[in-house]
């Protein structure tokens, strides 16, 4: 049977066939070639979905290497007793919901406690000034001692030093030559492993304008000279120079140190305690930086997490994650630590967020506590850190073989 087509019908069939061919060719090129914007959009959307799925599954995954019998939280029932199983399941779901509400309440209470400034110690200072001329003075700042400091969460006394910043506020009068009063930085020596260090160090400023007695202030910060992470601010105090009485008989005054509220960022981790094997599994998930952190983001900067295990204040083991540019690790970064014969009350973990250039080699991080002098990474690579102490250990003991996922602030 032969069909006779007109010229118009032949032309229409040719147009349809050629259009289908061109459409399939364009789709194939767009999904294969990395130059096309459809290919980029498709790849980025798939990458985002995979990252979300990894984070979701890592938060729910039970990180245990013990027997599978410990993982059963609901006993299955079959046959005529299936109603018992459904009742047990509904009861378990109610207990989980109640537990989630309690964890939310605990998190809110912890956040409210952190918002309140706590007294972390006191510092004794002697502040006086000497008149050089009618328009200039000279400050004398004597750091005497610090008292009532607290031990760190990993059972080590702090090695502290004092940093003083002399700040001058801008003057409103444009006729003055010194529109901005200069600032200066003073730093004491480091007192090794002491809760009540004595310094007796005197600092003399340069010639300053006399107007600094009205607008100037001293910002005093006490830092712990940390060996394995960035220096931690133990407390701070502010002294307004207009309140300094230079004619008093006793110029020595004691100021309370308030805890610092500055946070470098946050880190999301999951911890699981296995009491039978005395093992702790750590899952590193995600990190964020605060706006106050002065780090220029670029394609050459990579981030990684260092986890250090301390037993009675002594470093026993340290591990680190792989480097990433997006500060997202997922469920692949699982670090395991054996507590051996030590009690949980004697151990603590330190988490350190660090960065490095992609071209440079990362600092060494052996699993054994062999540390050679001069081989530690510079402190400017460390962004912030926090310590998992007895409060977190109490939660892990109450919920053994269950991962506890929580955001922690970096300081």
Automatic annotation (TrEMBL):
<keyword id="KW-0812">Transmembrane</keyword>
<keyword id="KW-0472">Membrane</keyword>
<dbReference type="Pfam" id="PF00168">
    <property type="entry name" value="C2"/>
</dbReference>
<feature type="transmembrane region" description="Helical">
    <location>
        <begin position="12"/>
        <end position="38"/>
    </location>
</feature>
<dbReference type="InterPro" id="IPR035892">
    <property type="entry name" value="C2_domain_sf"/>
</dbReference>
<feature type="domain" description="C2">
    <location>
        <begin position="119"/>
        <end position="255"/>
    </location>
</feature>
<protein>
    <recommendedName>
        <fullName>C2 domain-containing protein</fullName>
    </recommendedName>
</protein>
<dbReference type="InterPro" id="IPR000008">
    <property type="entry name" value="C2_dom"/>
</dbReference>
<keyword id="KW-1133">Transmembrane helix</keyword>
